[in-house]
Amino acid sequence: MTFYKELVKGLWKENPIFRLVLGMCPALAVTTSVENSLGMGMAATFVLICSNVVISLFRNLIPAKVRIPCFIVVIATFVTIVDLLMNGFAHELHNSLGLFIPLIVVNCIILGRAEAFASRHPLWLSIADGIGMGLGFTLGLTVLGATREILGAGSITVWGDLKWTVAGYEPMILMILAPGGFIALGCLLGGMNHLQALAAKRKGTIFTPPAHLDCRSCVMCKFGK
In angstroms, rounded to a whole number, what is the distance separating the alpha carbons of residues 124 and 5? Predict the structure, then answer.
């Protein structure tokens, strides 16, 4: 187990959104624009790294019977810091994300990494895990947000007035509505499975999508075999 291995695993192999399929509430709710996706991703990354650091440092002092309440208290502390900072310095983004900032406290990615990794590994590996999973979560949100925004609004909004618009494009309003989130996520999950199936075929092996994704019979996965 190395620092680099823990750092990069969240980008593809164990991407929280596209591989582990965690944190679906914010992934489907806030990804109507790239700006919202980046904001939520950065907020979650900050909380993930800081909570991993604290929990790893005190992992031998936290009683096993009360570890989950202790983890939640630590996570809630950093979520409160993020909430106040965003309200003070990025007020419009704070209003746009709304309730989903406080809900980072119960985000299964944050709590899951605290329980499964930070509470069982040394500080330097926990930092790598927090950075890698945070970047992977941000990347997943950004890809999903860019897909939905460009199809649903014909534009990509990075921050405030920093915006690109596709001239002459007729937006598909469905993609920035709730059903569009499920459609875009499903297509991206199928696309990743298809790419991995093609890569496995070149190596002479067979790729079996993770069972928890429950999409092994989709057309895109079959096509890659």
Answer: 12
